[in-house]
Amino acid sequence: MTPMRTAIYPGSFDPVTYGHLDLIERATRIFDRVIVAVLRNTDKPGLFSIEERMGLLREACQSFAGVEIDAFDGLLVDYVRSKGADVVVRGLRAVSDFEHELQMALMNRTMAPEVETFFMMTSAGYSFLSSSLVREIASFGGPVHDLVPPHVEVALRRKFQSSL
Amino acid sequence: MTPMRTAIYPGSFDPVTYGHLDLIERATRIFDRVIVAVLRNTDKPGLFSIEERMGLLREACQSFAGVEIDAFDGLLVDYVRSKGADVVVRGLRAVSDFEHELQMALMNRTMAPEVETFFMMTSAGYSFLSSSLVREIASFGGPVHDLVPPHVEVALRRKFQSSL
Amino acid sequence: MTPMRTAIYPGSFDPVTYGHLDLIERATRIFDRVIVAVLRNTDKPGLFSIEERMGLLREACQSFAGVEIDAFDGLLVDYVRSKGADVVVRGLRAVSDFEHELQMALMNRTMAPEVETFFMMTSAGYSFLSSSLVREIASFGGPVHDLVPPHVEVALRRKFQSSL
Amino acid sequence: MTPMRTAIYPGSFDPVTYGHLDLIERATRIFDRVIVAVLRNTDKPGLFSIEERMGLLREACQSFAGVEIDAFDGLLVDYVRSKGADVVVRGLRAVSDFEHELQMALMNRTMAPEVETFFMMTSAGYSFLSSSLVREIASFGGPVHDLVPPHVEVALRRKFQSSL
Amino acid sequence: MTPMRTAIYPGSFDPVTYGHLDLIERATRIFDRVIVAVLRNTDKPGLFSIEERMGLLREACQSFAGVEIDAFDGLLVDYVRSKGADVVVRGLRAVSDFEHELQMALMNRTMAPEVETFFMMTSAGYSFLSSSLVREIASFGGPVHDLVPPHVEVALRRKFQSSL
Amino acid sequence: MTPMRTAIYPGSFDPVTYGHLDLIERATRIFDRVIVAVLRNTDKPGLFSIEERMGLLREACQSFAGVEIDAFDGLLVDYVRSKGADVVVRGLRAVSDFEHELQMALMNRTMAPEVETFFMMTSAGYSFLSSSLVREIASFGGPVHDLVPPHVEVALRRKFQSSL
């Protein structure tokens, strides 16, 4: 009998973009359960609160089977173990991603050799896309409808109007 | 019920190194079945024949559960489909690997969107290791016992002695 | 009065892809005259002859205003001067391109400081696309209709059938 | 009749260096009008005020024909459109530049497909040169006369003396 | 008669790791005198004070012959000259290191052509290791005994307990 | 008493360029003895014979104290040991150099931990310069006087005239 496979997809998701959703959807085809885990980073407050980010993710992922939205702090490997997961999934867009991700993956393996990291290439059409660019464009009132789902676009607009 | 997950690990394996074996062993922990597939490339003859490479792989992998050794030619995506596999697994060592692998993964997705490619980081201790470096060192009679299993070391020595 | 601006777009074009055509079309919007110049490289024979490559380019570019198809050998800077051109245009897809192109551009500036090189980013959707990948896929009978125009697809099929 | 070509060269210019001036001078040979546009970034205050940077640029560029000094905030593509410009010009020094610039150029193309970005390689002798390194050296009283024009050197010295 | 050779190894060392110690030990085999120089950077306060970092280094290096621990501020090249040193030694781990280090080395050569910079490759097993990753792991109570000497582990634990 | 320090500078030197000479000259300031060692690579014949390359190097280096010209085949680490050398010196120009050199250095350390590799940055003005580019330019009759010493320029011209 084949055991169930669980993958963790950790990140900031401030906010979720079509690039993230492309990865989540592809991960659900391979893994039985995909936990999208928002990192609680007390150093960087971010644009959206952890709870807002989880809400935007939940709405964006509701049509995907086997996806859970969660949040964590502390060491990623401790979180992975607490969830009984087998694999960490990360997206790679560019060489600069690659170097940082390589260092993190090697570090995690030193601390938890049984936790495997799989890297997936971001689709070519989303290779330029990051949450920080989305935030920057939205802050100037620029168009983001090709970059994020409609409900995220609405949330961005509301966020930046209230800061005017 | 969870379906069986099959991963293809394609490569030249001329010859298999401890870097490859590290990846194969880690892949068997995640996938039910790992097919190590030697690429028949008629352009580059290589040091070992396809059959010799498969024999060295078979001996090196005999203690791993769920590993099959095979060979293929033509397009990788066609081979993956013919095996009913879900995932292609590739190792990443360095930035130069990354760029080429990124292009291949994007190209394969254009031709077969249902085939996913997962990249695994080579262990830090093997980040410099490649089959071509092993061949070069062995050709000068240098030490390769930290780089390949004993039976591959014997095969390398025999190969280079016969060419003297 | 503004002088006419001429750009040279040199390359192998073996064969022309949608990535090349995207760049040529964008260059025509900025320059009055764009000369697509096929490099005669006697070392590498290639799949298509220089004349075939020029023919495929001519058909692919017939709807663009201000484009000429040519071929050259020798030093690029000598060719640029002989055409009275102002600018060399090159496409960048990835870091590995970047390094080689940087070296060529600096070398050319040493020899001909008045010749400027402009780099244009390849569109995200074509970042994996190269003539060599197209040749490889076509050689195995794989699908290339998203990568090259129809008349190039026909020429590729003819080329590989005749070699069976 | 050939239309006039306008290029925008955006940046922080805090302060202008010989690397920037090399690029501006080369751009004026290709474009009829080059607008050097200082980015008003309210997040990072910088060493010189926007007005001081524009003054230093104006003095440095007074011998170049067709150069205008300006400042902008908001989205670059909105500014480019408001100026009726055709092209954004950016300098590339190194691989790390390249990746960030590639992402910005692809993002801008998503928002404004008619705005083209041209990259020019920084001259080899200036490949290490950045405004932040100039500021760092000047802050310790180190020599900057090979890196910036004399009037910028004077302005730097004054700035750091007043902060003692 | 051969003159004595002095090398400076500058850095933040906040705190010293096994990666630093590997480099220091290897440098002592080539140079008669190796000065490990902690950069006093008033902008970034860091986890350990400059004096604490020097203390941890002194204890870690006590078995190496010819090593001195020092601190400096201002321009590196001024410090090198003041010590009568011949060479600056720096470790390279990854491509991103490489670019930044290349720029610093070229900048330093512009200011002090007689000061040479030598780069040593970090051992493969330490390629992922940095002081900032050590700080991050220790801040979450994760294991660092493979990354730093025992007395540094103790100092880290004390530092993070006192901040609870 | 300080022991004599010997460095090996291995390479193809087909032919020697001003970039190589810049490195050799700088190495002689640090090391008592610098052995420039031409690699006998039977696979790639090259433009100049090993003896011609050594002759061009000898003439180019005659004003440098402590430089010897030699040739070697087999493993570099075996050659270094046979010479009683302490250090291998290599030049780095670009990221692509870096990756290959990193792999070679790590491999050599596996085989001979007592052999240290030092990397020196190529001067900014020579960052684009390679023997293969020199050969290519000379083959088309292009100018190489800024790239190689006069006697190498003469040798290149003779070589390419005789092949007409």
Explain what you see:
Six copies of one chain form a homohexamer. Chain A has 164 residues and is an alpha/beta fold. Chain A has one domain (6-162): HUPs (Rossmann fold, 3-Layer(aba) Sandwich), CATH 3.40.50. Helix content of chain A is 43%, strand content 19%. Chain A has six helices and five strands. In chain A, strands 3-2-1-4-5 form a five-stranded parallel β-sheet, sandwiched between helices. The mean pLDDT of chain A is 90. Chains A and B meet through helix 1, helix 4 and strand 5 of A and helix 1, helix 4 and strand 5 of B.
Mean pLDDT over all positions of chain A: 90
Report the CATH topology name of chain A: Rossmann fold
CATH architecture of chain A: 3-Layer(aba) Sandwich
Number of H- or I-type helical stretches of chain A: 6
- In the sheet with the most strands of chain A, the strands line up as 3-2-1-4-5
Oligomer: homohexamer
Largest sheet of chain A: 5 strands, parallel
Please compute the radius of gyration of chain A using only Cα atoms: 16 Å
Q: Largest interface, by Cβ-Cβ below 8 angstroms: which chains and how many residues each?
A: E-F, 28 and 28 residues
The CATH class of chain A: Alpha Beta
**Helix/strand order of chain A:** EHEHEHEHEHH
Helix content of chain A: 40-55%
DSSP strand tally of chain A? 5
Q: How many domains is the backbone of chain A divided into?
A: 1
Instruction: Give the N-terminus to C-terminus distance of chain A in angstroms.
Output: 58 Å
Low-confidence stretches of chain A: none
Category by helix and strand content of chain A: alpha/beta
Strand content of chain A: 15-25%
Label the overall shape of chain A: globular
